[in-house]
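Database export, one record per block. Field names are fixed; values are copied verbatim from the stored entry.
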Amino acid sequence: MKDLFGKAILDYQLGNYTEDIKTETSISEEDDLPLPYLFRAYDEMPAIEKKAMDLSKGRVLDVGCGAGSHSLYLQNEKHLEVMAIDVSEGAVKASELRGLKNVRLQDVMKLEGEQFDTILLLMNGAGMCGRLNRISTFLNKLKNLLKKDGQILMDSSDIVYMFDQDGDGGYWIPTDMDYYGEVDYYVRYKGEEEPPIDWLYIDYNTLQNAAQANGFNCELVQEGKHYDYLAKLTIA
């Protein structure tokens, strides 16, 4: 991987901001992801993210921390113990430069020997699972990292709205798709492109069913303005 996300985040942190990240999926056209948005303060966060910040407690694991905005708020404003992890070397470096005390270059699926009161997976954190058939493995790994009375706070979106509807209100889902929320995700930055990665947008009912099948209670905490939602998972 070229770590284009990390390069872009580090460019912004170092004052070399000249253009935004471009993203595209197998079912959507190219779109700009403004770099300043990744450096947002609490007041600039969507309501779902603010709610996740408000609910965070105890020892926190921020999975896929990016530029570290959520972790910095929890560390500096709520004075919580936070471990932030990301697979992007550039993102980790930028987060360190911003003052994050405990940030690691780490794949959550390979993290061992730690337990947390709160695990955060924000900015469609459920997407890291990649494909729906991996959700049980993903959730069970998170369970192993969670204290008995801990919580997982994750957000995602139901992207069924992106498909055409018929006259009865049903959606036309291509028959070659295992699940309509599975997409190939492309990132471009400064003339370079990453190989596509597997990404998952999971609707709440599907997440709830998967959570319950893997020993979790699942609660719909808040719905956003554009088919997005925040869910809380606790060990049943």
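Remark 1: The chain has one domain: 4-235.
Remark 2: The chain has a mean pLDDT of 95.
End of record.
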